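Summarise this fold before class:
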Amino acid sequence: MAQKKKWSDLTSGQQTAILVAGCIQLSLAATAWADLARRPASQVAGSKAKWAAIIAINFVGPLAYFARGRKVAVPEVPS
């Protein structure tokens, strides 16, 4: 069985890639949770509690919320 690598065993490029991916993940999740908190329940497809839990899933959760969890209101065109 392969031995686990320690942080110090990774190259600086690998460390940077992990940190960038982590920052992107946290930014996506924070943005999705903030949007969910501010959005009325009537504009959320399903339960807000369900979406709050789904957002915690790495990358997939926040992207799923933005793609499927929000009901986008279509602006009315004046006659």
Observations:
- The chain has a mean pLDDT of 91.
- The helical segments are 12-38, 48-55, 60-69.
